[in-house]
Structures are given as structure tokens and as C-alpha cells.
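Sample 3 of the quickstart, ligand phosphoenolpyruvate:
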Amino acid sequence: MIIVLKLNPTPEDVRTVEDHVRDLGYAPHTLNGEVRTVIACIGDETHHADLHALLNLPMVSEVIPIQKKFKLISREVHPDPMPVSVGDLRISGDSFHVIAGPCAVESMEQTLSTARFVKQSGATLLRGGAYKPRTSPYDFQGLGRDGLKILADVKAETGLPVVTELVSERDAEAVAEVADVIQIGARNALNYALLTEAAQTGRPVLLKRGLSSTLQEWLLAAEYIAKQGNPNIILCERGIRTYETATRNTLDLSAVAAVKRETGLPVFVDPSHAAGRLDLVLPLARAAVAVGADGLLVEVHPDPEHALSDQAQQMTFDVFREFVDGIKPYVQLTGRDHAF
Ligand code: PEP
Ligand code: MN
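Result:
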């Protein structure tokens, strides 16, 4: 960390700060500039006390951290890609994956017909929520255990690995039994107890970015999972809350490019929840491919108009077919393998 002192510190001010720095286990190295005095504090920030407390000293102006707080998932520690294996699938920068399926599991027929169609169109994983985190407590909350049973049956029938959301620690075991990938949704993206529980199941985790998470918060949430000995993490940008009302959320594509610089973990984009409307799903998906996303997560429903959640953004089968055709040339341009 670097401590910047206020203008014109006395020699005693400097000594006082140096003493505090030593007390906290760092070696102070004072640099007297023409205008400013700064004290570089030598020591591993991850093993020593946080020096931000020194902001309370009257002669200290700023305390600037130098080291990144995340390690296990960072390119500084792992410069190479960190692929995630899901059964026989390898999710990495070499291949491009589409995760598709309904917002919510509503019935065997709805889930099975969707799974069959998306598989035949080139999706490699099936999504579908048995537990739905809804903004209103009066809205459909998911079929729960019955939904998990449907997902298990559909997986047995189609062979598609399943991505499904965990919303409560209580259900971790049951969800992990069926899920090939456990989804942590935007609303729970900073629920550290849930992240820890999901990680401990040993299943790969698809971690959505929180509605208002900074990149640092998103990456530190991933670090919580990795810290449990589970480095199988797929990050998923799904739009953040802004002042804009034309779309459900604002898809932050710069986050995809920026986060890929920080970590070798695969980064997916969910244009369905970002847009909240059907007409923007394809253009946002194309942009996601162009910016370097490793895959997409999209919602598909046999009859979106009568869906029990997210009606406006779910694609019909026909639209999904066009969607896959629409992203294909973009994926080909990136030189990645794909299943469509
Ligand atoms: C979902 O994937 O259906 C979902 C609820 O997503 P998010 O957590 O991104 O809102
Ligand atoms: Mn949804």
C-alpha cells in the first residue's frame, strides 16, 4: 500500500506514520517528492492488517492499495485460461457454448420439448430454474423439488447437462444432486454464505454478476468459491441496474473485456436478462461474441406468451433457431469450436 501524506508534513508527522506502519507489520519506505511525501509500505497486503485505518491520522491524505485482493482466480497467479469441465464438455476459450432453456421449469412437457429443441439446434447445456428468485412474493416461485425431478428426468432423456439456480443454502444438497452446474443468480451474487455452500458441493458454479456489483465485487465473489477449493467457475454478465428504462438492465460489455484481463475463468453473457425484450437478444449476443465472451446463456420457451416468468424475453423455438444462425458467423470469426 502507499500512504500519501497531506501537504507540508513535519518530520515528526512522517515519523508518526512510519511508526504506525511498522506497528502493523510493514516496512515503511518514505519518498520525499517536490510537492508530496508518500510512504510506500512493503509487505504482503493479503497477510497483514489493512492500512486504511491510518486514514484517521490527521497528517494522512490517502491510502492506496497496490495488490489485488483476489488471488486464486487472478491472471497474476494463473496467467493461463482456467477451463471448467462439465461432464465431457470443456468450457474454455477454445470452444463456444450456448446454454439455453426456459426461465423456469414449469412442466415435464415444457422442459423436455425445449431441451430436445435446443440440443438439436446446438446448445450444449440446458438451463431452467426449479427455484426462482422473483421480485414479487406473489409471482411464481418455481416448482422446487418437483422441478428438480423434472430436470433430472429431462437430463436422463436428452443427455444435456443441467444448469439450475440455487437460492437457499437449505436446498444445496438437492440442487447439487441434479445440477451439473449450479447457478448463483444476480440477486444472490453477494450472498457469501450461499456462495460458500454452493462451492462446497463441488459442482461447477455459474456466477452471475450482481445488479450493482463492481467488477472487483464480482471477482471477489468468485474468489469466495475458489477459496473453498472449487475453481470451476463460469462468470456471467447479465446486465446491471442503471437509470435506463428502455431495457430491463444495461448490458455491460466492457465488463466482459475487462474481467477477461483479470482472470482466466470463462466469461459468459446472458443477453436475455440484460435486454428483457426479445428484439434485442440477438444483437446483444452478437456484440457479446465480438467482445470475447466464451459463451451465452439464453432463455427459450415453447410458448413464451403463457410462460410463468420472463414472458417478454424468452425466445420461441423458431426464434431460437434464427438466433443460433445469427450468431454462428460471429462465433466462426473468433475461430472457436462450437456445436451449431
Ligand atoms: C435467471 O437466470 O432466470 C435469473 C433469475 O437470472 P438473474 O439472476 O440474472 O436475474
Ligand atoms: Mn429468467
